[in-house]
Amino acid sequence: MSRAILWFRQDLRLEDNLAWNQAMTHDEVMLVYILDTVNSKDRFMGEASQLWLHHSLTALNIDCDNQLNVFQGDAQQILAKLVDHHAIDAVYWNRCYEPWRTERDAEIKQQLAKKVIVESFNGALLWEPWEVKKADGGPYKVFTPFYRKGCLNRPVRHPVSAKSLKPCFKSDLALKIVDLNLMPKFPWGDQVIASWQPGERGAKAAWDVFLSQGLAHYRQGRDLPWLKAVSRLSPHIHFGEISVNQLWYAIQSMAQDDNTDHFLSELGWREFSYSQLYYQPQMDQKNIQVKFDEFPWQNDQILLKAWQAGQTGIPIVDAGMRELWQTGYMHNRVRMIVGSFLVKNLQVDWRLGERWFWDTLFDADMASNCASWQWVAGCGADAAPYFRIFNPVLQGVKFDANGHYTRKFVPELKKLPDRYLFSPWLAPEGILTQAGIALGKDYPRPIVDLQSSREQALEAYAKIK
Ligand SMILES: Cc1cc2nc3c(=O)[nH]c(=O)nc-3n(C[C@H](O)[C@H](O)[C@H](O)COP(=O)(O)OP(=O)(O)OC[C@H]3O[C@@H](n4cnc5c(N)ncnc54)[C@H](O)[C@@H]3O)c2cc1C
After folding, report:
1. Where are the domains of the chain?
2. pLDDT score for 8
3. Hey, what CATH topology would domain 3-124 get?
4. What pLDDT digit, counting tens, does each position of 222-264 carry?
5. Banded pLDDT at 188 (limits 50, 70, 90)
6. DSSP assignment string, 340-377
7. 3-class secondary structure, 441
8. Fold equal for 3-124 and 290-464
9. How many alpha carbons fall within 13 Å on the CB side of residue 181?
């Protein structure tokens, strides 16, 4: 009779789960999730992620016939205790790539391997970051060669079907999911999760919707925040409720065109983010381009708070920040606009923007979030140059031409004609009155002048150039 622990981490699914399948070769299994509150330190998940995790674990537990054992504390100590207490023969998990986890997991592996079989698998990435290297052995710094030369020449593992659940045993030391205290203490949580279905079935449903409604418009439509042309799979992917291998092969099985190509390359951007994190584990703190260490960030707390609250007086920025607060998600185009506005027009350090996203995004992901913020700020690998500063008025006109998105999240501007929707401060008094808006009362005046703040940002950049 052999007994295994399957340690769930960011792979909260049964299908295409290599660690699951390996555990199911034993006679009995213990299904374990550990909320590591000790080793995660300042990278403990934000409020939105905790809320998602609560629901995702609940869904996983149902899919596992209520056999999930959850714990809280130091994963290393908890696993050591479980192995001794329950006479375990093997421990399996799928790998994670955040530096605090890789460090911890290496120690756990070393410690447990003295007593039991320990094996980890790739359940989160299409290609292992250490395998995708340039001919000289160094990491790629530019996306296109990384993806086209480094990734596409390598095979992608085919997804595997889930083996049946073996007889399970429970630990008397386990907690209930609710004891993890992942639910927010205030009512924001019920509203923000309402339009989502965390868990493997929710991921599959979101994927099916995208395949039938979004994919055919993806290439062009993915820049239009009012159109349902993107998958909204990012939280499901982050928590491993669906694997990127499943997505890759589902797309490969279709007729290939610009839309399928582009979708696969976005999965490639995710791989690129993980590659950057692997080679630069302090990427959440350190600028990839070191010249930015001297950047004279202003970090005005009042401006930062107005940005967080969606009260900057710049409509497309406020729409994005309110979408984030109300839904735990923000469309990619708008993430770029609000990010550029924060680091350039407001001259707030990108790390403060990253932290706010970390706390409020359901898909908050250390690799993608830090790489994307460094990209926006101009200090990352293959980043948008700092001097290319988005004009949020023109961005609104171009990508939300009919104003659907902005009017949805900034309803106080609903009645303003399209011509002034993205720059209400330019509207004549009569038009504002007709639309029922008193600037400074119903909707803020801009917290900065776009033109002069742009010039100041360029002056600041000139100092480090
Ligand atoms: C400032 C900023 C912060 C970001 N923070 C995160 C984050 O914390 N977590 C996160 O998953 N993405 C992040 N992104 C990347 C991107 O915005 C989201 O992945 C995307 O908007 C998710 O929506 P979707 O699932 O509908 O994407 P789709 O367009 O449907 O793309 C499918 C999947 O590809 C991946 N992907 C797409 N674009 C990117 C990208 N640029 N970089 C990395 N992966 C990508 C995601 O896993 C996504 O779910 C950030 C982007 C910016 C500009």
Report:
1. 3-124, 125-158+200-279, 290-464
2. 98
3. Rossmann fold (3.40.50)
4. 999 999 999 999 999 999 999 999 999 999 999 999 999 999 9
5. confident
6. HIIIIIS---HHHHHHHHHHH-TT--HHHHHHHHHHHH
7. coil
8. no
9. 5
Q: Measured from the CB, is residue 270 less than 6 Å from ligand 1?
A: yes
Domain 290-464, classified CATH 1.10.579.10, yes or no = yes
The CB of 74 under 6 Å from ligand 1? The reply is: no
pLDDT at position 413, please? 98
Long-range CB contacts (< 8 A, 24+ apart) of 138-141? 139/275, 139/276, 139/278, 139/279, 140/272, 140/275, 141/381, 141/382
pTM for this prediction: 0.98
The C-alpha atoms of residue 381 and residue 140 are separated, in whole angstroms, by 9
Please check whether residue 337 is in contact with residue 392, taking contact to mean a CB–CB distance below 8 angstroms.
Answer: yes
Span from the CA of 233 to the centroid of ligand 1 (angstroms): 9
Where does residue 396 rank: exposed (0-12), middle (13-18), buried (19+ CB within 10 A)? buried
Mean pLDDT of the chain: 97
- Counting residues of the chain whose pLDDT is more than 90, the rounded percentage is 97
Residues forming a β-bridge with 121 = 94
- The residue contributing the CA closest to ligand 1 atom 23 is 232
Q: Is the predicted pLDDT of residue 185 greater than 90, yes or no?
A: no
CA of residue 234 to ligand 1 center, whole Å: 6
**pLDDT for residue 465 is more than 90:** no
Written as one letter, the residue type at 98 is E
125-158+200-279 CATH fold: 1.25.40
Quick one: pLDDT band at residue 346, thresholds 50, 70, 90? very high
Q: Which residue has the tokens 């990127």?
A: 244
271 lines ligand 1 (CB under 6 A): no
Asked if 423 and 446 count as a contact pair (C-beta separation under 8 A), the reply is no
Which sign, positive or negative, has the C-alpha torsion 209, 210, 212, 217?
positive
Determine phi and psi for 21, rounding to 5 degrees.
-60, -35
Amino acid making up residue 58: T
As a whole number of Å, the end-to-end CA separation of the chain is 66
Question: Does 318 score more than 90 pLDDT?
Answer: yes
Ligand 1 site-directed mutation target among 226, 232, 266, most atoms within 8 Å of CB = 266
Structure tokens at 452: 């002069």
pLDDT tens digits along 48-72: 999 999 999 999 999 999 999 999 9
Query: What does the radius of gyration of the chain's CA atoms come to, in whole angstroms?
Result: 23
Q: How confident is the model at residue 88 (pLDDT cuts 50, 70, 90)?
A: very high
Q: Which amino acid is at 285?
A: Q
